[in-house]
Design goal:
single chain, 346 residues, alpha/beta, 11 strands, globular
Length: 346
């Protein structure tokens, strides 16, 4: 059983990552901690709780953490993920409440309680983890591992010409996190899933069609010629929710001339965190620009040791989008089938 502690800013691709991990019988989701990013931190928590409700998985702790970045004003991205961060999807009201613990307390207390057992997966800004490192500097050694979705290395950014969204929201936090890992053994260094490989995980209408079929609900048709905002009629509540969320995301990408696709950055990071998709990685020394107005949020990787500093990251350099989608579709489809059988039996 793999213990995963997720830190999220639940927008659309975070949502698929959460559902995917819930679908894996070999994964124990230790907790979900929430930071402001795609939307505000409390909306992130509501989205996460509602996804647990939809998947029949109440009882997993959801804690709110940082509501603003360490040093700069918060910027959110409702135009990308919708007013509530979940596109057109209408999530069920959760019965479970937000945890009374702060997200930073969850990180520190859970990792101390399970040394060497928990893999951290961070799919939003690094604010919570940076503050947790201030509280417990030994977290990198206490964790089994850490997977970060963030950054872009010698690759066009998606927020500024050089900066990726999660890092740009809180570049100071990202800088602190990478500094904390400098000089650690290779097996303790964070695995960084940056834009150059996560943008290869392009969800297409064909993938949603297959998801509906894998769920036993028939082909799910989300097509570029359909009216914007069309809602799913799938008999599977989980498929309908994901479809409505992803349609919004596809429309967003089309508005920015990227095609009728949806980049599932966080879902790839989740698959990588539980070793269910192949990838290659390369050691590097990473730093983050926090001063230059032109380049703030830019992540820089020294692959050749020009800085004469030890590596502090393993950057994913290659992946297999086809296999990753096969994994996502089969596993999430199986969960949807199981949920629908449970509903039918009630």
């Amino acid at each position: 059983m793999q213990r995963i502690l997720m830190d999220v800013d639940t927008g659309i691709d975070d949502a698929l990552a959460i559902v995917y991990l819930l679908s894996r019988p070999d994964v124990h989701l230790q907790a979900i901690t929430c930071t402001a990013g795609n939307v505000g931190a409390h909306q992130v928590a509501r989205n996460s709780l509602s996804l647990l409700e939809l998947c029949g998985r109440q009882g997993i702790e959801v804690a709110v953490g940082a509501e603003v970045p360490l040093e700069i004003p918060l910027v959110t991205t409702e135009e990308t993920h919708g007013p509530q961060g979940i596109g057109y999807a209408e999530l069920p009201a959760p019965a479970q409440q937000i945890s009374p613990r702060h997200a930073v307390d969850v990180w520190v207390e859970e990792v101390r309680a399970h040394p060497g057992e928990i893999t951290g997966l961070i799919t939003g800004p690094l604010t919570n983890f940076a503050v947790a490192l201030r509280r417990e500097p030994d977290l990198p050694r206490l964790l089994k591992g850490l997977v970060i979705m963030g950054g872009s290395f010698y690759y066009q950014g998606n927020t500024t010409p050089t900066a990726e969204w999660n890092t740009s929201v809180d570049p100071h936090a990202a800088k602190e996190v990478y500094e904390a890992y400098r000089g650690l053994p290779e097996d303790k260094l964070p695995l960084v899933c940056a834009l150059e490989t996560t943008e290869r995980i392009e969800m297409l209408p064909e993938h949603l069609r297959r998801l509906g079929e894998a769920a036993g609900a028939g082909p799910e048709l989300v097509l570029p010629e359909q009216p914007e905002g069309l809602r799913s009629t799938s008999s599977s509540p989980l498929v309908a929710c994901l479809s409505d969320a992803i349609r919004f995301y596809m429309e967003f990408h089309r508005h920015y001339d990227q095609g009728y696709v949806a980049h599932m950055h966080d879902a790839f990071a989740a698959c990588a965190a539980v070793a269910r998709t192949p990838f290659t990685a390369r050691l590097a020394t990473v730093d983050v620009e926090t001063v230059s107005p032109l380049l703030v949020g830019t992540t820089v990787a020294d692959f050749r040791g020009l800085w004469d500093l030890p590596p502090n990251a393993r950057i994913v350099t290659g992946n297999d989008p086809g296999q990753c989608f096969d994994e996502l579709i089969s596993s999430v489809g199986a969960l949807a089938r199981s949920l629908d059988r449970s509903l039918a039996a009630q």
